[in-house]
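User: I'm curious whether this sequence folds into something compact or stays loose and floppy. Could you predict its structure so I can see for myself?
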Amino acid sequence: MWATHGYPSYPALFSLSSLSFLVLVNPSQGQLVVPSAGQLNGTWQYSGCYVDVGRTINAASTTSDTMTLEKCIEFCDDQDFAYAGAEYHDECYCGNELATGADEVEDSTECSTECSGNSTEACGGPDRLTLFFNPYNTGPEPNLGIANWTHIGCYSEGTRGRALTFGAGLSSTQMNAANCTAACRAAGYILAGTEYGAECYCGNTVANGAAPAEDGCDMTCNANKSEVCGGPNRLNVYDFNMKYIIPTDVSSTITATSTPTVSTSIITSATTSGSGTPAVTGFPEGWSDQGCWQDGPNGRIMPTYQAPDDPELTLQKCAQVCFSNGYKISGAEYYTQCFCSNAIYNGGEASNDTTQCSTPCGGDNQVMCGGPGYLSIYSDGTPEVFKAPTPPRQVLNGSWTYQGCWEDNVNDKRTLFWALMFPGTMTPEQCLGTCSSFGYAAAGLEYGDECYCGDPIDVDASGATSRPETECNVVCAGDASAICGGGARLSLYYWTGDKPLYVFSYPQGNDSGTYSNLVGGVVTPLMTMQSITGKVTFLEKWGTGAANSTGAYELDLSQLDNFDAAWRTMHLKTDVFCSAGLILPDKAARQLTVGGWSLDSTYGIRLYTPDGSDGIDGTNDWEENVAELKLQRGRWYPSAMVMANGSILVVGGEIGSNDKPEPTLEILPQVGPVLYMDWLERTDPNNLYPFLTVLPGGGIFVAYWNEARILDEVTFDTIKTLPNMPGAVNDDLGGRTYPLEGTAVLLPQFAPYTDPLGILLCGGSTNGHEALDNCVSTYPEAENPTWTLERMPSKRVLTCMAPLPDGTYLIANGAHEGVAGFGLADDPNFNAVLYDPFKPIGSRMSIMANTTVARLYHSEAITLLDGRVLITGSDPQDGKHPQEIRVEVFTPPYLYSDKPRPSFTVENKDWTYGESVTLELGAPPTGTIQVSLLGAVSSTHGNSMGARTLFPEVSCAGTTCTVIAPPRVHIAPAGWYQLFVVQDGIPAVGTFVRIGGDPGMLGNWPGGDDFTRPGM
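Assistant: Here's the prediction. I'll summarize afterward.
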């Protein structure tokens, strides 16, 4: 409705038959008259002589040397104005409302100037109007047909600033309500206001003392003369989806201005209903009159659906429209408007004053279709009424508790980071339930359909403050009984459930571990692996790296005090940039890389046979000859895995740097052609460096992007597709593999290995560069595997994770935002996190020590035999952070324990499955003894290929312990493992052992004079 019309209330039709003429006394001209009712077509009637207060009506005007009252009325009638007024011989004015203070004069002879075109008619006088009124003309009106926008009235400009504070910048030639509302919605506002025919303003609340105005919204829009666009210091205000809650101290129903009195005969129906409207038929069966209801003041009482305006509206038509659309309540308002709903909202009440419903229906002027701010309501039975919206104090059975109305966007920064949109559906339960499902303990609802997730600490850090409840005034899009924030205001809730969503531990001092510098570096590695000799291989992007680089170096950990002796220079022939790496199960534990950056390097197969010992350099180097040995397909960013049969599986990648996908698998040594995988092509480029592992049940698990599946180990057909893994709370497509780079490990397996194998993936990102702050885990061989989500203490992409000898995992390196690639991530994450799988879900994370070295793209973390974690690399090429050559170690807290550290020796380092192996402890045990086996790894881009954690059966008698080797290849794929004795959680210095031999006979591969074959 347009609540600013100054029309009189007429409960029935006017009868003008008795109004033939009126006589005005004019001393000089005799009697001056106005036209008869017949001359006025039975719709216009004389209202009297009125004071012109600066312009009593001013929506349109004209002058003419031949002005008559009929001509003036015709001019205004053609534009559908309700008022016409002639003034001072030749002036004519039109409008739809009378200005404040415009009253009829007692002496009608003050309108005594003859019309310039008819000397017998009175055309007003000096500052006097001969005024006529037509109750059936609406004139230019606010646009009531804009989808999702409701006109809520004429408002004054603010007394301390703009009523709506954002200027939309819309061209004056484009000004109409549809364009203004579109501009405001695009700018994120829920209120739009048109002013002075040519101006558009936006906001989320009516500000600065602005208030509903009784008049002044009478200027036509520059781009549409059939509608009004405010006036001088007046705005026609529109509300998006009725999200704005009008403050309770401001009435939304505007009292009419002074209106002319008319002597008329009033025709009333002989049979009337309780609301003063005639009893009628033609309603849906069972529908009945519910009376006259005030629409507001707390917002629309029937906000569910508004039908298009109907100039021929009747009460029956409105009811039938609602019934046909599945609603059981209809409400007719202000001539042509029809609203439908299944309940009455916002505390709507039937009015005791039925004369408020006093506007004739557009299609039946014998009955009333509501009034300004009032609805004539019909329904199927007594309508259900919901109270005015309020923020619920407790949500989801008390798991969430309301904290009040809080600021958002302080200093243009969100109070809570994670943003979701639930257009048209949001409820407090929907928002809060979503936030808690991702482990967030703070949630805010804003603008009716926006949901934000975070933690209470985020609120404290943002600088946001609590605000008056009246500033949270927008109804939830999916629950008209609840408030969901306001403009830049959050209805804030904190988790208060019986069980915390997460518990982070904060160890202090050495209990949080330490970072320290290990040795001066010579290279920025993108791949590291510890050899069975104890030395560490560093590989970098040779050919695209430093000009003097040879691409490969070896670090002797026994020579850290002698820089020159610590480093040995080695050599590559092609670029290993973004290749895959493995330690092979042959008896020399050769190191393998496959794929690379471009051209021949993408086909590259490179082998290194570790040699030398502590303090003694080896002489072997990397071997490669692409003319004799190469992949079937060039691959950039592939993954590799030793299969249960001992062959090497190479998966995926792209044909070159940022090029087309290579959606295939191939086997080394070469067996058959490559195999096409549709799921690799479909998910490119977010599936690079997929995570691979042999499963105890005999399949191959592969995780890529946000998907996972199990492949048959012989045919490579998919035998099980897992549900998609959760990503970000606001993005189901957040992923874990390059370039969305997270990391993955296998959870510990314990003898007798009857429990299912768990997979843990941590960190990652979205395509919007929002790093993930969670880990997800699953047991893929379960009958119906699901994903369990756990919050991490902070967001992390470019994540690395190193299995530790005690069965825990160190999470390190990375950034708080971005994705993998040069210059694509920022805000380094300096903090280490310890993940303890032996604690309950939700309390496994401990916040450990910080480093001062940014470890971004191309950083690594591997566990050394001494129990520390080697931290290397970082090659962001972002102009902010260096290409990092510094080499650090993280020392876990178990190496700071006051308890004695065990030691051991083992003679047998080549185990068969199920074999009993004897260990000798260096001293009698003083606590619980365990043995752990960590798969030998090659680490790059967060993917530690070969990683596995096993706790075999062990028993001790004195200092002699017997370990039972894992029973079969699917529990422990053939290969090399770091063996640790662990006493009360403290590991001894480990050694490498081989389990399962070399079933694929890789030790006799490849042929040719350019390669060393160590044997099986």
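Summary: Confidence is low (pLDDT under 50) at residues 1-30, 250-280. DSSP finds seven helices and 76 strands in the chain.
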